[in-house]
């Protein structure tokens, strides 16, 4: 699993690099044909992994323990202009949360999980390993959306 965690960190660093190359206005802009923006896609991956790892394993009863969950949870959409301070904090949480999850995983914290099927991939996740591996695909799906949105900005 160490290689999987390393890949997640590397992919999130690439996403952060994309973010760092854009203005706050560009990150908040919803391009034509999209229903969200680059910063929403980034915030979404940040809150989703934490929610799946800690709520599905019943470490937390619900997702309210995670900052920004209401703004970026599944089914949400951008409702406000995200300021530079929040963007900086999301970048910090993106990496620190994976490091925290990796430590918890290595310490055996995730001993049980409530199995569930993903709506995106129609895949059954029956273990914490399934959740962590699926994070790779989920993060990169949203990174791909963000790359497409960046291209749409440049037109």
Proportion of residues in helical segments: 55-70%
Major sheet size, sense and barrel closure: 2 strands, antiparallel
**Tertiary shape:** globular
Low-confidence stretches: none
Put the structure in a nutshell.
The protein is an all-alpha fold and 155 residues long. 61% of the residues lie in helices and 3% in strands.
Structure description:
It is a single chain. With 155 residues, this protein is mostly helical. Helix content is 61%, strand content 3%. The protein contains 6 helices and 2 strands; from the N terminus they run H-H-H-H-H-E-E-H. A two-stranded antiparallel sheet has the order 1-2. Helix 1 (2-20) runs antiparallel to helix 5 (84-106), helix 1 packs parallel to helix 6 (128-153) and helix 3 (38-55) runs antiparallel to helix 6. The relative contact order is 0.21. The mean pLDDT is 94.
What attributes does this structure have?
single chain; 155 residues; mainly alpha; two-stranded antiparallel sheet; 6 helices; 2 strands; 61% helix; 3% strand
Helices and strands in order, then pairings?
Layout: H1 2-20, H2 24-28, H3 38-55, H4 69-72, H5 84-106, E1 116-117, E2 124-125, H6 128-153
Helix pairs in contact: 1-5, 1-6, 3-5, 3-6
């Amino acid at each position: 699993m160490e290689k999987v965690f390393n890949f997640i960190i590397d992919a999130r660093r690439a996403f952060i690099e994309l973010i760092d190359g854009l203005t706050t206005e560009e990150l908040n802009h919803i391009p034509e044909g999209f229903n969200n923006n680059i910063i929403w896609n980034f915030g979404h991956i940040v809150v989703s992994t934490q929610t799946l790892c800690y709520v599905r394993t019943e470490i937390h009863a619900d997702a309210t323990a995670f900052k920004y969950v209401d703004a970026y949870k599944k089914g949400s959409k951008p409702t406000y202009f995200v300021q530079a301070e929040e963007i900086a904090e999301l970048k910090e949480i993106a990496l620190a949360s994976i490091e925290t999850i990796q430590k918890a995983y290595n310490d055996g914290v995730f001993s049980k999980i409530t199995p569930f099927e993903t709506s995106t991939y129609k895949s059954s996740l029956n273990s914490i390993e399934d959740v962590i591996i699926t994070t790779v695909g989920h993060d990169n799906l949203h990174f791909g959306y963000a790359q497409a949105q960046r291209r749409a900005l440049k037109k």
